[in-house]
Specification:
The chain has 338 residues and is of the alpha/beta class. It folds into two domains: 197 residues, Quinone Oxidoreductase, Chain A, domain 1, CATH 3.90.180.10; 127 residues, 3-Layer(aba) Sandwich (Rossmann fold). β17, α11 and β18 form a beta-alpha-beta unit. It is globular. The model has no long low-confidence stretch (mean pLDDT 96).
């Protein structure tokens, strides 16, 4: 089968790999759509320690059941599937409560083993989620990043009629913006250094667009909130500057959610966190409940998730990843289709 293989920093190659066979309890999925995540891009850059070449990237994917392994009784050939790409141990307290994303022994497609930027992939039955016939395979591949965004926004105790800041509008920041708006945020500011992505968010209804490459974002956001700060801030970048600015731009009693991981550590003004009672929360991946909620939300057709997509083929992988690396890229979200 054809697979897009990460063979070293800044290098992807379309190679022939053996087609996997489903083990007991698995199905063979013909991959129909697979999205590019920011973490895939980190792997491409050689910045992801766990993504060791040669590796097939890709954990945001959907497909069609092509072959059924033994001991699988709930699915049949031809069914359309969105894949929950985290495999837990099935024994710990997190797995027992549908929170495989917190399982200390979790394994992830495209990180711990070959992912879905290939023609076929074997998937455990427990990771298969049926999608409504109304959803395309491309929409089904967006379930994973949308579940991520739902998980982030649910970390905020209040969203309805609140003001918010999305710091970094790459693929996850875009989804967070759409979900926060869907959940009733009153006003939303977005911040980035890519003017093309900011223009796309403006067309999607952002109330304030801040190009941090052109001006200091903090005074702009504080002026926009009449000096109060935003009720919630989502850091989808994860560097020292973004974390510090999210804190400084937050209202007293506000909530900050970290999902970006550009830098592993940073310094923060601890006194401000304490005396202003700012709540800082981490967000990693999503629960199975978030995944189900993402499917249901996509099925409503109320989110313009496909308006900013680039659909392309695996053979263009090297070019697409190089484009995504640029701070001037016009791609909001790339999806490989077959």
């Amino acid at each position: 089968m054809k697979a897009l293989v990460y063979t070293g920093p800044h290098r992807l190659e379309l190679l022939d790999l053996p087609q996997p066979s489903p083990k007991p309890g698995e199905v063979l999925l013909r991959v129909r759509a697979v999205g590019v995540c920011g973490s895939d891009l980190d792997g491409f850059r050689g910045k992801s320690k766990k993504r060791v070449p040669p590796l097939v990237l890709g954990h945001e994917f959907s497909g069609e059941v092509a072959e059924i392994g033994s001991n699988v009784s709930s699915f049949v050939r031809g069914e359309a599937i969105a894949v929950y790409p985290l495999i837990g141990c099935a024994q710990c307290r997190y797995c027992a409560t549908h929170r495989q994303h917190l399982c200390p022994k979790r394994r992830v497609y495209g990180l711990d083993f070959h992912g879905a930027m290939a023609e076929f992939v074997a998937v455990p039955e427990s990771c298969l989620f049926r999608v409504p016939a109304s959803l395309s395979y491309v929409e089904a591949a967006l379930v994973e990043p949308l579940a991520n965004a739902i998980h982030v926004v649910r970390k905020c105790p209040r969203i309805t009629d609140q003001s918010g800041l999305v710091y970094g509008v790459g693929p996850i920041g875009l989804m967070v913006f759409l979900v926060a708006r869907q959940f009733g945020a009153r006003r939303l500011a977005v911040l980035d250094v890519n003017p093309n992505r900011l223009s796309a968010l403006q067309s999607l209804g952002a109330d304030l667009v801040v190009d941090a490459s052109q001006r200091d974002p903090l005074p702009t956001i504080l002026e926009w909130t009449q000096g109060i700060g935003v009720d919630f801030a989502i850091d989808a970048v994860g560097c020292s500057t973004s974390r510090q600015n999210c804190l400084a731009a937050s209202a007293s009693g506000g909530t900050i959610v970290w999902i970006g991981l550009s830098e592993l550590s940073c310094e923060l003004e601890a006194r401000s966190v304490v005396t202003r009672e700012v709540d800082i929360r981490g967000s990693y991946a999503y629960s199975r409940d978030d995944f189900n909620e993402a499917i249901a939300l996509l099925a409503t057709k109320t989110l313009p998730v496909t308006s900013a997509l680039l659909e392309t083929e695996l053979e263009h992988g090297q070019t697409v990843f190089e484009d995504l690396e640029s701070q001037q890229t016009k791609i909001m979200k790339a999806v490989f289709v077959s």
